[in-house]
């Protein structure tokens, strides 16, 4: 159910205030527990329609949560009091596809023609996996999740194109069905795995050499399980080479006012009247 | 899982060929069984970005399945050989928010600046409800599902705004949890119910007088169950009064090449290697 209920958003508001004031400039993992975090992509309006097409055509890696009004730095349905120019701990600013800055505030790059896109982030499904008792190797090993560029092309849209990027979490085969069932409940957070087992089936040559993040050790008897990853749209944006693009720095996400459960398609349904 | 498998799409292709040739001009209920059908909205590109914002901000009533390239009448990810100017049995054409024609082909209204949006349709979740043994009153009574304008405002975007429209299916309270669980698996087809029980909670005064469709009789002991409805975006489009808009006529949907299961978030997940 996506209906909104009155809810205490103090923890999310406080975390964003700390970030805005420069008191927190690191990764957001563990900040404001219970609240969904989101990937940020900011583009000139001239690119917005094609980027939206790219996201709609590739919903696994690019699940859309909100799109701001042109020039409006507030993602109103995710956090009505937020300012996307200051409320992400660290940004990456691109000019013509080249990273030119990694600031903690992007007021000076903001333009009246910019549109902000918020996309689902795997932190939400990792929370659900942990809640379901599926252990996560990269958390146990205190590293970033490993990510790989696959040989599966995304459906292109205008200047946006490229391969799907996946994240990988190893687990015993006995955990796979449960992990798939749990993450499938969160289609707005990348949903169920796209593949389990042989990495060559995705064109991945060497699990020990991820394209992003850190390698994790895979225990005897474990298999690698792959999910569509939010780095996919960032790579497509770099390839499109817009005059300006702003994204969050890896791991430095936008914290929303919405709890993880908001995106759980299996969350409690309406109850019959009469309390029966 | 949204991965595509090789699949026999003959029935969908044949149904669209019949429609294109004018051999079928009626509603599409029951045509090409097993294939997902979609709502159609066509707008000038100048309205496309705001309409996409409206859909992203209101995913319950407005689940996006695909967006065509500007001027391109093909929804490539849903049916690569289709032509949206001819492959819907009947259209409604609006000028400045007023219906000016209900043709079976819209070649003469097509313009190079038009963008087509395909949105999820409840036919898919009705198929899933039937498969799960939840009987549907309007099918038993051979009428259209009743639809009501609620007092719940959608999140606006540019000129697009208005209340959420819901469809209603009565059932015994004992069926509610199952119906909610089954439809929740299809977030791209409106997902779980938004409400069950007292219609006044949605601002609906009289179930016997639906705003669209036909009334259904509600048996003793049954309760009304309400789902977000694809008429919502059509009403928002009429209110926005674009110079031209083309939508499908009620019940006359676009038939895709994708099976209902494609949109089932609980569809079978990857299996562990080795066939275990």
From TrEMBL, chains A, B:
It comes from the Bacteria. Belongs to the D-glutamate cyclase family. HAMAP family: Hydro_lyase. This is Putative hydro-lyase MPSYJ_25540. The keyword Lyase applies. Coiled coil: none annotated. Pfam families: D-Glu_cyclase. InterPro entries: D-Glu_cyclase, Putative_hydro-lyase, UPF0317. It comes from Mycolicibacterium psychrotolerans. Its EC number is 4.2.1.-. One of its GO terms (molecular function) is lyase activity. Keywords: Lyase.
């Amino acid at each position: 159910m996506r209906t909104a209920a009155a809810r205490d958003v103090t923890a999310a508001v406080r975390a964003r205030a700390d970030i805005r004031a420069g008191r927190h400039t690191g990764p957001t993992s563990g900040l404001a527990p219970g609240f969904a975090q989101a990937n940020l992509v900011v583009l000139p309006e001239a690119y917005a329609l094609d980027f939206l097409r790219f996201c709609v055509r590739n919903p696994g890696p690019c699940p859309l949560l909100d799109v701001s009004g042109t020039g409006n730095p507030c993602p109103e349905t995710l956090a009505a009091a937020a300012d996307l120019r200051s409320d992400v701990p660290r940004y990456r600013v691109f000019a013509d596809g080249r990273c030119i800055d990694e600031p903690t505030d992007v007021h000076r790059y903001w333009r009246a023609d910019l549109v902000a896109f918020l996309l689902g982030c795997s932190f939400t499904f990792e929370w659900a996996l942990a809640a379901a008792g599926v252990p996560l190797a990269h958390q146990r090993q205190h590293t970033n999740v490993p990510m790989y560029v696959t040989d599966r092309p995304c459906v292109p849209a205008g200047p946006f194109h490229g391969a799907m990027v996946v994240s990988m979490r190893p687990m015993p085969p006995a955990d796979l069905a449960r992990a798939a069932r749990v993450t499938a409940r969160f289609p707005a957070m990348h949903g169920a795995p796209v593949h389990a087992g042989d990495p060559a089936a995705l064109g991945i040559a060497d699990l020990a050499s991820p394209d992003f993040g850190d390698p994790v050790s895979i225990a005897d008897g474990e298999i690698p399980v792959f999910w569509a990853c939010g780095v996919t749209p960032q790579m497509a944006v770099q390839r499109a080479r817009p005059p300006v693009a702003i994204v969050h720095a890896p791991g430095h996400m936008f914290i929303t006012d919405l709890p993880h459960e908001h995106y759980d398609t299996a969350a409690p349904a309406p109850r019959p009247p009469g309390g029966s």
